[in-house]
Design goal:
Blueprint (H helix, E strand, L loop, with lengths): L1 E3 L31 E11 L5 E12 L13 E5 L15 H4 L12 E5 L25 H15 L7 E5 L1 H12 L6 E5 L8 H15 L15 H12 L3 H7 L3 H18 L2 H9 L16 E7 L11 H5 L6 E6 L14 H15 L2
Parallel strand pairs: 1-9, 4-5, 4-6, 6-7, 7-8, 8-9
Antiparallel strand pairs: 2-3, 3-5
Length: 367
């Protein structure tokens, strides 16, 4: 079943909430159950291209307690996968965790076992990444490698063999399609936000190439062996700022050239403090071979895909999801209109906007 909402004529007043890391004061627990952090080490990890590392570290945050059936299988695990170059903790904000994780909310942490990993290579996370030591000698992983690392963490580290639900946002959304194709018995249901079930092409790929080239073609990059962050990283972050843009809101909040310039300067300055060029390049390059289209029919889990009309990465007017999602059995696609509550690509942080669809997929997959 598919639902397409017609866009409203009024332009959204939106706030982009992940162009910059969330302020520290917003990272406090937002449920009655406190989060716990841990690490899992996978030995002799082999990458798809034949490279390997003696070990990789996977960092994670969990909220809640696993419940097991008579066979010892965890029945209440919810995996939440973040977007490119972020970390699991980005979801611990009022607009996401505060809407979903509390008492009697859809993902009440007293009922569900919530797992928020820092994905392999993610610049803001604590899992293994190029900037730890190897820099440009770090294996050039792809989404398949990242999925395999999380799967090892779940099975060997947390003893979770099956997921009640996978929530994937942006990069995590794309990985959700791949995971459900390659391991169809792992997951009961998927709530996927802000991606498309087809290879990255068109403007999406062009912007990724621009950002990667901004860094790699800078002489200061020195093939990844720089002594200070290359200036090209500033240009890449500038492109990312455009991707995260909220034009109508920003016109109101920064109505003069001076105020707009000030915001850009502050954004670049703050992000240069927390972004490593190699981590950035590796993360965006990891999408190079993403293309789930041919195997969509292999997915057995129930799937809900929710996109927004004003998503820069995946513009609603392209009609790609409407064409591809019928290939997924037991699936639904929703295209949200532009409203004052949407945030373009990053609407996935505004759980109040889409939580009714999460409620639907949870109910449908429990039958």
């Amino acid at each position: 079943m598919f639902a397409r909402c017609m866009p409203m004529l009024t332009i959204a007043v939106v706030v982009c909430c992940v162009a910059r890391p969330a302020p520290a004061q917003q990272a406090a627990p937002l449920s009655a159950v406190p989060p716990k952090e841990g690490d899992f080490v996978a030995r002799d990890f082999k990458f798809a291209d034949g490279e390997s590392l003696p070990e990789i570290r996977m960092h994670y945050t969990t909220i809640g307690t696993p419940q097991r059936d008579a066979n010892g299988q965890v029945t209440n695990a919810v995996l939440i996968l973040h977007g490119t170059n972020r970390k699991g903790g980005v979801f611990l904000v009022p607009s996401f965790a505060g809407v979903l994780f509390g008492r009697e909310q859809l993902l009440d942490a007293s009922k569900y076992y919530l797992i928020l990993p820092d994905q392999l290579g993610a610049g803001l996370g604590k899992s293994s990444k190029p900037s730890d030591a190897l820099r440009a000698k770090f294996p050039h992983y792809d989404y398949g490698d990242m999925i395999r690392a999380v799967r090892l963490m779940l099975r060997d580290g947390l003893q979770v063999d099956r997921l009640r639900l996978l929530i994937g946002t942006s990069m995590g959304c794309m990985q959700g399609f791949m995971w459900a194709e390659s391991h169809p018995d792992d997951i009961d249901a998927l709530m996927l936000l802000s991606c498309l079930p087809t290879q990255i092409a068109g403007r999406n790929r062009m912007v990724r190439k621009l950002m990667i080239d901004d860094v790699r073609l800078d002489p200061g990059y020195k093939d990844g062996n720089y002594s200070q962050q290359p200036y090209g990283l500033r240009a890449a972050l500038g492109h990312l700022l455009v991707v995260a843009s909220a034009p109508t809101l920003w016109q109101a909040e920064y109505p003069t050239s001076a105020s707009a310039d000030k915001y850009v300067d502050e954004y670049i300055t703050e992000n240069m403090k927390t972004t490593d060029a190699n981590d950035f390049v590796y993360q965006y390059d990891a999408s190079r071979n993403y293309d789930p289209e041919a195997d969509l029919g292999k997915i057995r889990a129930r799937v809900m895909l929710v996109n927004t009309m004003d998503d820069f990465w995946n513009p609603g007017e392209m009609g790609v999801a409407e064409k591809e999602m019928p290939k997924v059995k037991n699936s639904r696609f929703v295209l949200l209109p532009i409203t004052k509550e949407t945030r373009g690509h990053y609407t996935f942080f505004q759980a109040a906007v889409w939580q009714k669809y999460l409620g639907q997929i949870l109910e449908e997959s429990s039958r």
